Amino acid sequence: MMSATRSRTLPIRRWLILALAISFLLPVMVTGFLVFHLAGVSDDVTGADMDSAADLLRDSVASWGDPAWQAATAARLAELGVDFTLIEGDVVLFQSTSDPFTDADGDARVRRVEQLTFPGSNPEISAVVYGEENSGPPDGIWLAPVVALATLSIALSAIGWQIGRTVVRPLAATSQAARRIATGDLEVSVPSSNVREVDEVGTALELMSAELRHSLEQQAELEQERRMFVGAVAHDLRTPLFSLRGALEGLDSGVANTPEKRARYISIAREKADALERLISDLFAYTRLEYLDQTPNAEPLELSQLVGHLVDGFQPQADSKDIELQRDLSPDSRAVQGDEHMLTRAIENLLDNAVRFTPVGGTIRITCERTHSEVRLSVIDSGTGISASELPRLFSPLYRGETSRNRGTGGAGLGLTIARRIFRAHGGDLTAGNLPHGAIFTASIPFGDQDETARKYNPLGRCK
Description:
- Among the domains are: 86 residues, 2-Layer Sandwich (Beta-Lactamase), CATH 3.30.450; 162 residues, Histidine kinase-like ATPase, C-terminal domain (Heat Shock Protein 90, 2-Layer Sandwich).
- 51% of the residues lie in helices and 15% in strands.
- The strands form three sheets. The chain has a five-stranded mixed beta sheet. A four-stranded antiparallel beta sheet has the order 2-1-4-3. The chain has a two-stranded antiparallel ribbon with strand order 5-7.
């Protein structure tokens, strides 16, 4: 089954850019946060420690000469990694270390130096503060490569899982579906994907499967219809041919040995020849509409005048059965776009159907009226009507209702089918129903663009 909806998708190029950005930025961001914000820096003296030491010395100028204060202050600032020297004039009062630029092991070290002066003091005093230069790497710098590799591994795993879910699995399912289609299994389903190109491939495969399935079903229907069509044609042609051959053999063998018999045999031969001509004409018209994609040759046409002319042509047949032809044809105020030859055939089929199934002494009423969008033609007879079981199949090719099985009515069961397809080829339709006394056939032709009508009509005579 085709997916009812597809997920919102992005082109594969955007997914690749997003994957590259994540694989680069995520390790950098996580490493920077963990190492420099959580691991912290080394215990080297900071600027704040130097400022604390300078404030302590300024506040204790009066105690600079006190040996006890000197020892306590040296110990206190040593905990902060700060050394200092007190100077009065040119004399050094106190040094917390003999060489502030060398550590206990005699190795040179980088120091940060800040000099404190006290202008206006007498004698002039000053101090020099030495702190460790904060230039080393953080204490947890060794975590950086570990965190970076771990984060990169997680990011790549997530990207790989996403690629498998949105690319690999849908493509594998598409490949499997294609192999199933190749073996004739058209009931396939492909999972959706957030990658647009992959999703479009899956959607196209499902659409192709659905179209193939529909095509095969339609082909099976057409094949079944073709077989029925051929069988019905053979049966309908055989009956008049058998009668015609019998009449000709009777004339040839001398069975018709009186003028009356010869006249009757000739009348039978002529009647069956007319039936054959009508059958072949219907079959030819049906074949053109069904297989040759015949479209109307649209020209301005006054339908009321055409209907009136055709009704006049059926007057002799109606008179032979004492049928009254009633007409109510509104004057043409607007011409329709139609093919006169095709519409003549369709209207003749309706009138012929009405005359054949209207009993002796009955009436046939033909109306033609206009609405704002179409012209509507109705043929109403006073026959027995159409049974409820026949109505759904009345316009099916080669279908005959129970009342039409008498071969004396003639026809191949194509007249109404041809008529409906002609009206549908003009953008209209043909319907059938019952009235309290007889049947009614209603045809319609819209006032519209005939080119658009032709585009809506397909070779099988069905409106799209």
